Amino acid sequence: MFRIADILELKLFGAFSRGVPNEERVIMQAWEHSPVELGRFFLSIGWGSPGGDGAAPFNDYFLWLGEMVLQPKQWVVVMTGPGKPTTYGMPDGEPPMMVMHWNRANVLFASENVVPILLHADQIAVKESPQQLLLGNAGKPG
Q1: Domains of the chain with bracketed CATH
Q2: Residue 7 pLDDT > 80
Q3: What does the pLDDT look like over 26-53, one tens digit per residue?
Q4: CA atoms within 13 A on the CB side of 106
Q5: pLDDT in tens, 111-131
Q6: pTM for the whole structure
Q7: How far apart are the C-alpha atoms of 93 and 8, rounded to whole Å?
Q8: Helices first, then strands: H and E counts in the chain
Q9: What is the rounded distance in angstroms from the CA atom of residue 92 to the CA atom of residue 140?
Q10: Which residues have CB under 8 Å from 111's CB, separation 6+?
Q11: Fewest CB within 10 A of the end CB: N or C in the chain?
């Protein structure tokens, strides 16, 4: 297992109501000092390390959190089952709680060893078109 920098913009509190259909969820909260662009984040699951300080991600369990901006201290709840996104008003002028759904047919966190993993994407590669590959160095400076 390798170690990378911690995510500071979004706090991951963990999985709750583990193994309970239609109640199982992951809870997160935006950092308190500035808005957070959710489009740079993915939620995954993996096998937690015995010390609780890391996890090895499973294949095929990724959820892009979408093109939304969270206000400081705004809560995000990801239900693992099916449903439609919604928001709920919060007391005392707090930003509304955002609820989204992973739309998985089965629960994900029935085992205590399976943990949510929050990933931050700061770079991405998208395939090159065949025309770019055929041209080789044509059109490149230098």
Answers
A1: 10-135 (2.60.40)
A2: yes
A3: 999 998 888 999 999 999 999 998 877 7
A4: 5
A5: 999 999 999 988 878 877 776
A6: 0.83
A7: 24
A8: 1, 10
A9: 56
A10: none
A11: C
CB atoms closer than 10 angstroms to residue 15: 22
Alpha-carbon distance of 107 to 23, in angstroms, equals 9
Question: Which stretches does DSSP call E strand in 3-73?
Answer: 10-16, 25-30, 36-37, 41-48, 55-64, 69-70
SS3 state at 133: helix
Q: What is the DSSP string of 59-77?
A: EEEEEE--S-EEPTT-EEE
Distance (Å, whole) CA 118 – CA 112: 17
Please check whether residue 132 is in contact with residue 57, taking contact to mean a CB–CB distance below 8 angstroms. no
Residue 101 near residue 76 (C-beta atoms within 8 A): no
Q: How would you classify the pairing of strands 25-30 and 114-120?
A: unpaired
Buried b / exposed e over 108-141, threshold 16 CB at 10 Å, is bbeeeebbbbbbeeeeeeeeeeeeeeeeeeeeee
